[in-house]
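Open question from group meeting: does this chain pack into something compact, or does most of it stay loose? Before anyone orders reagents, we agreed to write out a predicted structure and look at it together. Recording both the input and the output here so the notebook holds the full record.
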Amino acid sequence: MAQLNIRIDNELKEKGDILFRELGISFSSAISLFISQAVREKAIPFQVTAQKSNNITLASEKSLAKDWLTPEEDSTWANL
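Structure tokens returned:
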């Protein structure tokens, strides 16, 4: 298993921790989800723009994550 060290703004890290905890996944699992989806799509798995978008729903997040979650994390999604 590879270990990845990154630098990230403290406030962004804290907000990410809160969000991912609410979603029932770890920060590490969230990063793994992003990389897995990017590799699978051979692209960044969301549109990169200068505009903010609020179009991502819980349903779309669940759809993106379902193939990459551990059984424990998947059961958390089932309760949402």
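Observations to bring back to the group:
The chain has four helices and no strands.
The chain has a mean pLDDT of 79.
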